[in-house]
């Protein structure tokens, strides 16, 4: 009589879903640019703080706590950049005359060299303001990039435009949420001075069509205790939410009813206002190389000293 072997039961394992690559935007499908911000040799204290401020500007797709050692050279950073998906380097240096900023595309360039004519730290910007505004989730999303004055048709300005456009993630205007747009980086090219103004702002929305008292009450986001009051108007009056005589400043308005978290539900319109958070820089483009800190000079023939 034939014998039948008992078949071994195999546990069913549900196949895992294929996860999209971590360095690819789930919405646009484009590769997310990532950056390293570091220095070349020793920097003075103010430039070290400027380096920390630039790292915050590049958040969340940068190494905020990148460790540097004196013996590290450019090749060391390049070897680490590949496995981590880093696409851009921002390098600060200080010579006997001026500080410099180099912005390079990895691994083969090009490289833009800027002389920093003037700069202000984020702490300096905050100290100059009556009410500095830096919410805790301000750096959760990458900033928007706005370029002004670069459309002159000159080759070096085109390369500068492409470099800065690609250093931040692209956005899809059809799917972007207003709540994710909290910062903006503005680069303005002055045709007369040939200098580039670098500014970093936070974006805040204010409801329009309501009084200042009501607007401040709505934006407080805290549940008030009205148990001892007869009417909500008593709370607004006693709490001192501004003055009715204060006029609203001019501001642009947006209408995005799909993202009601940051707009006025009554009129579906909100005023867009910018508040500078720093850092602030005035840059002079002095050289463009087709390689990574080397190669043929595409623009500029001025010699730049520095530990490159």
TrEMBL record:
InterPro entries assigned: Brix, PPAN-like
Region described as Disordered: spans on this chain: 1-26
Transmembrane regions: none
Record GO terms (molecular function): rRNA binding
UniProt feature coiled coil, ranges: none
Domain of life: Eukaryota
Biased composition (Basic residues): 1-17
Domain Brix span(s) in chain numbering: 33-294
Protein's name according to its UniProt entry: Brix domain-containing protein
């Amino acid at each position: 009589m034939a014998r039948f072997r008992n078949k071994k039961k195999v546990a069913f394992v549900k196949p895992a879903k294929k996860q999209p690559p971590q360095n690819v935007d789930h919405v646009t499908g484009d590769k997310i640019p990532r950056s390293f911000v570091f220095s070349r040799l020793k920097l003075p204290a103010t430039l070290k703080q400027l380096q920390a401020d630039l790292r915050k500007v590049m958040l969340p797709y940068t190494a905020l706590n990148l460790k540097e050692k004196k013996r590290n050279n450019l090749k060391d950073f390049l070897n680490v950049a590949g496995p981590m998906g880093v696409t851009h380097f921002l390098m600060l240096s200080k010579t006997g005359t001026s500080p410099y900023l180099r912005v390079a595309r990895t691994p083969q360039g090009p490289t833009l060299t800027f002389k920093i004519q003037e700069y202000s730290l984020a702490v300096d910007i905050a100290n100059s303001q009556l009410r500095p505004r830096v919410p805790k989730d301000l750096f959760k999303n990458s900033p928007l990039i706005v370029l002004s004055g670069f459309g002159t048709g000159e080759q070096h300005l085109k390369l500068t435009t492409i470099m800065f456009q690609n250093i931040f993630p692209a956005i899809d205007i059809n799917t972007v949420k207003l709540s994710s747009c909290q910062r903006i980086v503005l680069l303005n090219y002055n045709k007369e001075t040939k200098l580039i103004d670098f500014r970093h702002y936070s974006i805040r929305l204010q409801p329009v069509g309501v009084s200042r008292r009501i607007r401040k009450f709505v934006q407080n986001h805290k549940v008030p205790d009205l148990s001892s009051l007869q009417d909500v108007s008593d709370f607004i009056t006693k709490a001192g939410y501004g003055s009715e005589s204060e006029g609203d400043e001019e501001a642009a308005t947006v209408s995005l009813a799909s993202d009601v978290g940051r707009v006025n539900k009554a009129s579906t319109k909100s005023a867009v206002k910018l508040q500078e958070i720093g850092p602030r820089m005035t840059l002079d483009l002095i050289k463009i190389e087709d390689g990574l800190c080397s190669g043929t000079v595409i623009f500029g023939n001025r010699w730049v000293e520095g530990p490159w």
